[in-house]
Amino acid sequence: MQRFRDVSDSTVRKIDRTMMGMAGFDTLEELEIRFMREAEKILPGDCLCWNNWAPDLSHLLNFRLNHSYVETFENLLGVFDEVVAHHPIIAAGQFVATSEEVKRLSDFESYHRFKENPLFREVYRHLDSNHQLAYTPCVLQDRRIVLTWNRRALDFTERDREVLHLTGLRLGAISRRIAQREKLEKNWRALCGFVDARITAGPASYLGAQDVQLLEKLLKSGTRSGIAREMGIRRDSVDKRLGSIRERLGLENHHQLLSALAELKNPAAQIGG
Q: Model pTM?
């Protein structure tokens, strides 16, 4: 793998096997729990943390740590909020850049200088942690996932940086798929509820990929003829698929489906996403 020259083929296979075991999870919480349990097997570091930040990085929503650091850091969360702006990566205005590249704390501030930093004095020294890598594997609609790995002794190598980046790419792909499934399921249940609260139309997983596309485009006020052209399929194919969806929802005609979708758009929402 050209992009990750310092990562051996065996390490790539190990990462892929580990991440494939998480691909079938239904919720991001399930993924978080398993990832934090498995991450120590493939990632370099001592204190591992999955942070959920607001998408605009205005505040930390919640976090999950590997077991040995949970109690320690929870006691420091209040003071962490007060001094996090002193983080060298944040202070350098490079936090957003972690979306695309793994950032190393020591690239912005020497260890000697960092020991004088309020973040070190108030937080890091309690964690016995001197070096950190940070990376954002993905930004979802409701959160920005930021992975941080702290190390006690030696700084992180280029290989360590590549291992985190590769793992993050895999994690990001899984996280986005789970978030899309969750959104689809939520909107499908809402649509069923608007039609009839007693309806048992089955889970959203019963919808095919084109069904999801059709509903998304109808939510955007597309016409059936326009949707057919945009998707490159026949108009009667669009009508047939919409007929199947209406049947599951117990609707009699296209007007009733449009009325239900209009309810779903208020507040605005999309199927799939």
A: 0.75
